[in-house]
Each structure stands twice: as structure tokens, then as C-alpha cells.
Amino acid sequence: MNKLYYIVCDDKEANVFEGRYQGRTRGEALKFLKQSIGRKTLNGLVFTITEIPVPLIREIVAEILTGGDGNNVTHAANVLPLTCPKTETNLGRYDAFADAVDPEPTPADTTPPKPNKKPGNPGHVDVHWPQIRAYWEGCHSAKQTAEHFGLSPNTLKTRIRREGWNQ
């Protein structure tokens, strides 16, 4: 199934290519862009390949930058105004100068961990992952979460990607 891609490519504030390409994948559109500008690589260029028409993106960005509430964007079909979810997060400092606060133990912290059945994952069997995920959802920092639980950041990133925590 062919898709319509809109391609824009700039080189130091000068537009090198702007156009459309109809193909199956984004990779095909990328090859088309390289052939169109006559280069083997796109190093040093700023480009975008998108299925959403760029003029529509420009309208949305212009509306946001002008401080509009999105109510006068009725001429664009099926466009909903962007709203920020209201989150009540407790912002705190996570650096060397922050006051150390010991968190109150939860019932899950007082239960003894199951014996480690997974080689290469010492001390972090499946019992700990709900706690790790809850901590990560509070801060959305893989590095900070990995340091807190004594994990490798790559181990945590793999689990985030595999289980789809970002969705």
C-alpha cells in the first residue's frame, strides 16, 4: 500500500528540496530524496519525511506560537486543539544538594524477594519490576531509575521498550 510522503530538506537555512513522494516505506522516500539532490548521504542537512502534510503542521505550530486556544482552526479538517494534561507531580531536586528523604516503606518493600531464577539479572526478578516501573512513571528518567535500583540503564531501557511503558 503506497503512502504519500511530504519531504523538506534544508542546508544552512536554504531550501534544497521540498516535494512529495508516493511509495511504500519511509526508506524509499529517503532514497528518493538522496537521488533528487544528488548526494550519497544526508550528513549536514536538515530534513523531514512525514505522512502529515507540512502546511498543516505549519498551521498548527503558528496557532500555538500566536497563543491561540485552537478554536479558530476550524478550516483544517479533523484537527483537535492541543491541550496539556494537568498533572499534579511533586517536583523535587534529584542532585547532590537535595535533602535526603527516606521514603516510607510500602508493603511490597517488606516482603522478602523470591530467589533469583534469571541468570544475568541478579537481585531483580519479576517481583521488583512493578516497583521499578512505578518509580520510572513518576520521574520518566531511565538514568535516575537505574541508579535508584542499582540497574544498568540499558537493562531498564530494554524493559521499557519491550513492555511498552512509553505508551
Describe the structure.
The chain has six helices and three strands, in the order E-E-H-E-H-H-H-H-H. The chain has two domains: about 50 residues; about 80 residues, no CATH class. A three-stranded antiparallel β-sheet has the order 2-1-3, covered by helices on one side. The chain is elongated, with a radius of gyration of 24 Å. About 5% of the residues are buried. Helices cover about 35% and strands about 15% of the residues. It is α+β, with helices and mostly antiparallel strands.
Residue-averaged pLDDT: 75
Which structural category fits the helices and strands? alpha+beta
Largest sheet: spatial strand order: 2-1-3
Instruction: Give, in order, the helices and strands.
Output: EEHEHHHHH
Structural domains: how many: 2
Distance between the termini: 26 Å
What would you call the shape? elongated
Q: Let me know the largest β-sheet.
A: 3 strands, antiparallel
The total of beta strands comes to: 3
Write the layout of secondary structure elements.
Elements: E1 3-11, E2 14-23, H1 26-37, E3 46-50, H2 54-65, H3 107-110, H4 129-139, H5 142-149, H6 153-163
Antiparallel strand pairs: 1-2, 1-3
